[in-house]
Prior knowledge:
By secondary structure, the chain is mainly alpha-helical. It has helices spanning 21-36, 43-49, 53-74, 80-99, 103-132, 136-172; strands at residues 37-38, 41-42. It has a two-stranded antiparallel ribbon with strand order 1-2. The longest helix has 37 residues, at 136-172.
Amino acid sequence: MLQMDNSVPIEYFFLTSLSSVWLWVFLATIWIFLSNNIFGVPYGAWLKAKDNENKLSELHQTTLFLASLFIKQYQITTHWFFVLLFAFIFTFWLFTGFLYGNEFLQLSIFVFLPILALIQIRLRLANKFLIQQFNPSETFSQIRLHRRNTRILGFLSFVIIFCWVMFTILKQQTI
């Protein structure tokens, strides 16, 4: 009698490899979440409310409140100690990843840098919301524009990571 082995080889779950399918699922999940939730408000809620002025006004007020909280939470430029500490850690991370050829550190840098750029873009958007006092329909158009730009940034991130993965795999190939 033949006995089937139902165990899954550990190579399929090797998450630090650049050629792992789990890496790409993880990246897609991150960018879908980042492009669909802007200041914690789902983009689908904006689409449902675009014809209803009352719901659009409620979302506008919620977004302004969450944007002000976002500014308070992520505006660390006034705290120079944390900025310098972050710069030191990031530089150490960058050199360690590329100097020693650690694929996981290299990949995490390529994932983390666009997210830092996105945080800065969202800080600018939140400041724009609070300074310019948009009406609800203008806020929705700004949200739609920001979502498009977030998706473009995510796509560029995927392309750069894919090119780096191909370069790394080809570099490690031996003939």
